């Protein structure tokens, strides 16, 4: 029998997840947003679901209630529905925040529901990209033990893979995701800024580094970490690293510290790869500002 799902929050995640669940055979009962226009637009993309603005009525009669609002509104929304008796006893209440644990859904649990958080380890810039990128992604799940089997079922419907994490380590999990995605963008911006200092146009700089980025990502996928590390740190080229630091001091003095902090961790990766000797590692750490 198809699962009956209500979606409270019609942004990128709610709309994309609703579309994929509908495509996998679930029944989307309701799609709720703050404005009716937005709810109608999301329901139209999903292909089913009654659009509305009342989360309490939407939650009633749903086996799975997905709260896909912004993080700041998850607890408030859950508390509102619970206080008004919107959650059916035994239903599953889910949020999709990477930073928040399932404990923010405590009022739903108190109302007799089971609660869980599900978060895709994926960057979702738009609904279209989310629909394309979510299948094949890993999803973290944590929450009530009685909710785990259905959390896995949701991820299966989304064509994803599951990693179960401890509820008290959610912040550490989210930090890892932010480093892999947000800080990757930040590091690419760092490289582009260096090329801009050479006089390159910013768009040209991005085009110049993209083949290198793709090659590096391919190497990471093919041989893993630390083996994908190349460059002066991996081979213990102390003089080249010195040259980098001197060049940055002249052209981008505010970025020297960032280069050095990244370099220190690269030394650890180089040692793990086995291509960096202990002596060269010490010399690199000395010029990067941290002798070990």
Bin the strand percentage: 5-15%
Rounded Rg: 24 Å
Spatial order of the strands in the main sheet? 3-2-1-4-5-6-7-8
Secondary-structure class = alpha/beta
Question: Average pLDDT, to the nearest integer?
Answer: 96
The termini sit apart by 61 Å
By DSSP (H or I, 4+ residues per run), the number of helices equals 13
Domains counted in the coordinates: how many?
2
Please give the number of β-strands: 8
> Which residues form runs of ≥5 with pLDDT under 50?
none
- What is the fold named in CATH at topology level of the largest domain? Rossmann fold
The CATH fourth-level homologous superfamily of the largest domain:
NAD(P)-binding Rossmann-like Domain
- N to C succession of SSEs: EHEHEHEHEHEHEHEHHHHHH
Features:
292 residues; alpha/beta; Rossmann fold; N-(1-d-carboxylethyl)-l-norvaline Dehydrogenase, domain 2; eight-stranded mixed sheet; elongated
Account of the 3D structure:
- The structure is a single chain.
- The mean pLDDT is 96.
- The protein is elongated, with a radius of gyration of 24 Å.
- The chain has helices at 12-23, 36-46, 55-59, 71-83, 106-110, 127-133, 148-157, 170-196, 202-223, 232-235, 238-251, 256-273, 278-288, and strands spanning 4-8, 27-32, 50-52, 64-67, 92-95, 114-120, 138-143, 161-164.
- Helix 12 (256-273) runs antiparallel to helix 13 (278-288).
- Helices cover 54% and strands 13% of the residues.
- The longest helix has 27 residues, at 170-196.
- The protein is built from 13 helices and 8 strands.
- It is α/β, with parallel strands linked by helices and 292 residues long.
- The termini are far apart.
- The chain folds into 2 domains: 4-165, 3-Layer(aba) Sandwich (Rossmann fold); 173-288, N-(1-d-carboxylethyl)-l-norvaline Dehydrogenase, domain 2 (Orthogonal Bundle), CATH 1.10.1040.
- Strand 7, helix 7 and strand 8 form a beta-alpha-beta unit.
- Strands 3-2-1-4-5-6-7-8 form an 8-stranded mixed sheet, with helices on both faces.
